Inverse folding.
């Protein structure tokens, strides 16, 4: 099999060259620097830095809240994308542009705003806290801001696919006697699946590394609401660069393996769709 | 074409002239400092620049950089060319010195152990002090909520920790008593903000907590801005905060700015400098100026870090760093 077929447009080697160069400078080099800094530790030091009761609690919290937030985002994002694509109503365009706001807003601002809304004396907190709902300075608070931050990713990946999906296919399904649930499950969902998984992966990955917003709403209580990036900052504060990057490396490894897993899942879902 | 090259030459000449003129009577210094000192340095710089111009004919431009104290120290270590560093804690300045950028026994180079001013940790309480908080033991009374930033990520945070610790052991308590005390204290901290700014927002804007542990100068500003909603309470004993100042030898030698940088830091000890410092609620090192502002600075027993540890880095290692006393407070079970 020839490696490169003849294309309409020339420039394969040039564009590949650029791609490799940019990926190296922007992604690979910083990651390598991170690994080499962490390698300044002995194996025992590395272990002591990354594997304590406290760091384990932080990894679990970071992973758990990111996962929950990404799952919530899949449902919310699909719903919002559906509404934006399939219905015409006044204010739709405004709503559409609001979706990208979490990307533009400095995340610290997001965190501060959420904290002030849900704290004991905030607009919403004054009603929620008496009901026993602590939506600031708790794990719930972390999930809330992560949902906020990850929302655009799911909406923006699902939207174009949904736009390509013609309403006729649903009508055909209905006229062939499919129930609403069957039409959704058998006709609409399969082509959306890869986009949903991609959106999930993006939202999840974004949440794993989030620091700015979370520190303002979580309360940072060790073992309870202390996310892994806070531990990195804490070690930097001791000028313990090696230990700080060691924790970063572990986070990086976790995120990377998660992303690989999700990629496989996405490929598998595309494959199974082709067989239907 | 000819005109073009001619004008180019003129332009180059003018630029060269401007360049030399620039070098002759203007000089730029970079002061890397920490967060709440913006207003302090704005006033000090204006006053020093005028004085320096009168003395030497040189017009100084002083650039300021502000941020979290230890992240500022890391910037300098990583190559930010500060002429002087005026950070919140000995630990941060010392970290720079350990990388060889500041040399020798730097703390001895300027009067009063390179401390033109000091400060301390005091309490900010709600109007009328409803929980009756006067002293350290009052903090751990049932139902009192304390706001203080995370000692792991904030200089303000660890200073408050040291102060709480000292308040027990320097009044005859044992280390065990002190451990019990700080454990109870941090159990009553509902939110551990990552920095002093965040803790202040939590206490003032969110209305969370009964007492906020804060640097004296920041406490004063916080109360001033709250327009009667908050009060400062000075406990009878507290730690002496030591924001050292130092010339960064590696930078001033390379930039040939040592003379100006040293004059700048010496100016802080003059009466004019000390007066500005006192007006910004930092405790001046000059006894005379301190006495003049006695109303602003209630006398309390300011203990030195050396009374509870060898020095600041040692205290940080014992109490705050990985595996220290602070880590054990939160250990589940």
């Amino acid at each position: 099999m020839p490696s490169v077929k003849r294309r309409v447009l020339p420039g394969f080697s040039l564009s590949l060259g650029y791609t490799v160069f940019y990926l190296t400078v922007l992604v690979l080099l910083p990651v390598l620097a991170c690994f080499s800094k962490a390698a300044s530790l002995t194996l025992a030091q590395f272990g002591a830095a990354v594997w304590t009761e406290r760091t384990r609690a932080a990894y679990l919290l970071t992973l758990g809240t990111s996962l929950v937030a990404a799952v919530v985002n899949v449902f919310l994002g699909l719903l919002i994308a559906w509404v934006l694509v399939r219905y015409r109503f006044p204010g739709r365009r405004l709503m559409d542009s609001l979706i990208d706001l979490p990307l533009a807003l400095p995340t610290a601002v997001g965190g501060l705003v959420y904290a002030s809304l849900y704290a004991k004396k905030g607009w919403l907190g004054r009603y929620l806290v008496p009901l026993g709902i602590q939506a600031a300075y708790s794990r719930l608070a972390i999930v809330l801001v992560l949902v906020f931050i990850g929302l655009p990713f799911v909406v923006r990946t699902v939207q174009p696919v949904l736009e390509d999906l013609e309403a006729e296919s649903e009508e055909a399904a209905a006229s062939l006697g499919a129930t609403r649930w069957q039409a959704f499950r058998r006709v609409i969902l399969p082509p959306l699946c890869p986009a949903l998984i991609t959106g999930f992966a993006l939202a999840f990955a974004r949440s794993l590394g989030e620091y700015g917003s979370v520190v303002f709403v979580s309360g940072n209580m060790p073992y309870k609401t202390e996310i892994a990036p806070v531990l990195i900052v804490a070690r930097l504060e001791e000028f313990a660069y090696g230990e700080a990057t060691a924790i970063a490396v572990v986070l990086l490894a976790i995120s990377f393996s998660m992303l690989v897993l999700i990629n496989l899942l996405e490929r598998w879902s595309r494959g199974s769709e082709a067989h239907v | 074409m000819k005109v073009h090259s001619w004008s180019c030459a003129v332009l180059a000449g003018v630029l060269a002239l401007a360049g030399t003129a620039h070098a002759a009577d203007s000089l730029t210094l970079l002061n890397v400092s920490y967060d709440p000192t913006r207003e302090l340095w704005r006033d000090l710089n204006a006053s020093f620049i005028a004085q320096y111009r009168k003395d030497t004919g040189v017009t100084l431009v002083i650039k300021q950089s502000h941020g979290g104290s230890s992240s500022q120290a890391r910037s300098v270590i990583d190559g930010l060319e500060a002429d002087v560093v005026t950070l919140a804690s000995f630990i941060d300045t010392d970290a720079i010195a350990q990388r060889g950028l500041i040399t020798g026994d730097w703390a001895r180079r300027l009067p009063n152990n390179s401390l033109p001013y000091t400060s301390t940790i005091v309490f900010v309480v709600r109007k009328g002090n409803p929980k009756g908080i006067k002293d350290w033991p009052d903090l751990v009374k049932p139902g009192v909520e304390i706001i203080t930033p995370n000692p792991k990520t904030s200089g303000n945070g660890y200073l408050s920790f040291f102060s709480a610790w000292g308040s027990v052991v320097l009044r005859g308590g044992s280390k065990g008593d002190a451990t019990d005390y700080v454990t109870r204290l941090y159990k009553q901290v509902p939110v551990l903000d990552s920095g002093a700014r965040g803790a202040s927002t939590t206490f003032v804007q969110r209305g969370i907590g009964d007492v906020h542990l804060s640097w004296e100068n920041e406490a004063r500003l916080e109360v001033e801005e709250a327009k009667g909603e908050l009060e400062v309470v000075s406990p009878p004993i507290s730690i002496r905060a030591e924001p050292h100042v130092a010339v960064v030898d590696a930078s001033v030698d390379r930039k040939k700015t040592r003379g100006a940088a040293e004059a700048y830091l010496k100016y802080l000890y003059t009466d004019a400098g000390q007066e500005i410092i006192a007006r910004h609620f930092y405790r001046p090192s000059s006894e005379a100026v301190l006495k003049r502002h006695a109303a602003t600075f209630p006398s309390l027993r300011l203990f030195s870090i050396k009374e509870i540890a060898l020095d600041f880095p040692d205290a940080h290692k014992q109490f705050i760093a990985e595996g220290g006393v602070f880590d054990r407070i939160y250990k589940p079970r």
Remarks:
- The CA atoms of residues 116 and 122 of chain A lie 5 Å apart.
- Chain A has a mean pLDDT of 89.
